[in-house]
């Protein structure tokens, strides 16, 4: 949820507010001085008066001159303000804290939000670390949708085969699928007994399966010249 900013955004209240309202109405046309907010975006604003009282609020939506706010932010207390009192977008501690920062090891700390980009490629240099406990979605598509000019190290999920695959040494190959077993054993390499999708052995590769193997009607297994598929 990115913060939004606008230079010299200052206005006045069109009407008095008490300590509990969550809508602030600015004087006519002053709303345009402040950021336009899409869903999930926000900015921090400060209410203030001539007696020196102030309150920081989080603005979560703006419709014309009307702001939707969360009161009493950053240790301030929600209080009443009068028509004509000031409202401004000022740089607050939370505004800076929410930005990701590089520490002495050139590692990002804080929250890093990567917006959706209107592009087909995104490149980053250096090491990239994901330390959360959620997931990472890798590219996926059919065999026909593989990149036309792949490079070693690329990986994707093949929706035709239902497997993760990587490109190495001039060919696509399945990722994972190594031997497994109880505890730390690596003994059993399992394969399905039925071929349900047409498949061509990778160039220069042989294959082995434990049978019996059934090839479904209309499905073709292509073994290039000079290669072998051994069914045990």
Could you explain how this protein is built, in words?
The chain is built from 1 helix and 18 strands. The protein is mainly beta and 232 residues long. The chain folds into 3 domains: 10-96, Thrombin, subunit H, CATH 2.40.10; 146-188, no CATH class; 191-232, no CATH class. The strands form 6 sheets. The chain has a 6-stranded antiparallel β-sheet, with no helix packed on it. A hairpin with a 4-residue loop joins β10 (155-158) and β11 (163-168). The longest helix is centred in the middle third of the chain and has 5 residues, at 93-97. The protein is rod-shaped and about 90 Å long. The protein starts with 9 loop residues before the first strand and ends with a strand. 10% of the residues are buried. The model has no long low-confidence stretch (mean pLDDT 87).
Compact overview of the structure:
This protein has 232 residues and is mostly beta strands. It contains one helix and 18 strands. The protein has one helix at 93-97, and strands spanning 10-12, 23-25, 43-48, 54-63, 66-73, 86-88, 101-102, 108-109, 140-141, 155-158, 163-168, 171-174, 194-195, 199-200, 207-209, 214-215, 221-222, 229-231.
- Tally of individual helices: 1
Number of domains: 3
Indicate the low-confidence ranges by residue numbers: none
Q: Would you identify the CATH architecture of the largest domain?
A: Beta Barrel
- Report the top-level CATH class of the largest domain: Mainly Beta
Principal-axes geometry comes out as rod-shaped
The helix content, as a percent range, equals under 10%
Query: Quaternary state, please?
Result: single chain
Mean pLDDT: 87
Q: What is the makeup of the main sheet? A: 6 strands, antiparallel
The CATH topology of the largest domain is Thrombin, subunit H
Distance between the termini: 56 Å
Q: How big a fraction of the residues is strand?
A: 25-35%
Alpha carbon gyration radius: 30 Å
What is the ordering of alpha helices and beta strands?
EEEEEEHEEEEEEEEEEEE
SS content category:
mainly beta
Spatial sequence of strands, sheet with the most strands: 1-6-3-4-5-2
The total of beta strands comes to: 18
């Amino acid at each position: 949820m990115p913060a939004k900013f606008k230079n010299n955004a200052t206005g006045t209240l069109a009407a008095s507010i008490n300590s509990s309202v969550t809508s602030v109405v600015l004087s006519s046309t002053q709303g345009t001085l402040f950021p336009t907010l899409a869903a999930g975006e926000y900015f921090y604003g400060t209410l203030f008066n001539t007696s020196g009282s102030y309150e920081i609020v989080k603005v979560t939506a703006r419709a014309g001159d009307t702001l939707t706010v969360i009161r009493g932010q950053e240790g301030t207390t929600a209080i009443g303000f009068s028509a004509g009192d000031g409202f401004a977008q000022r740089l607050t501690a939370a505004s800076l804290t929410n930005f990701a920062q590089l520490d002495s090891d050139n590692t990002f700390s804080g929250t890093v939000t990567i917006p959706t980009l209107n592009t087909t490629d995104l490149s980053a240099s250096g090491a990239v670390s994901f330390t959360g406990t959620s997931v990472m979605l890798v590219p996926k598509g059919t065999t026909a949708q593989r990149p036309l000019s792949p490079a070693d190290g690329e990986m994707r999920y093949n929706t035709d085969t239902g497997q993760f695959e990587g490109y190495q040494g001039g060919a696509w190959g399945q990722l994972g699928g190594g031997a497994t077993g109880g505890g730390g054993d690596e003994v059993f390499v399992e394969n399905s007994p039925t071929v349900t999708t047409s498949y061509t052995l990778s160039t220069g590769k042989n294959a082995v399966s434990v049978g019996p193997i059934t090839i479904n009607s209309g499905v073709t297994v292509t073994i290039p010249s000079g290669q072998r598929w051994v069914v045990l």
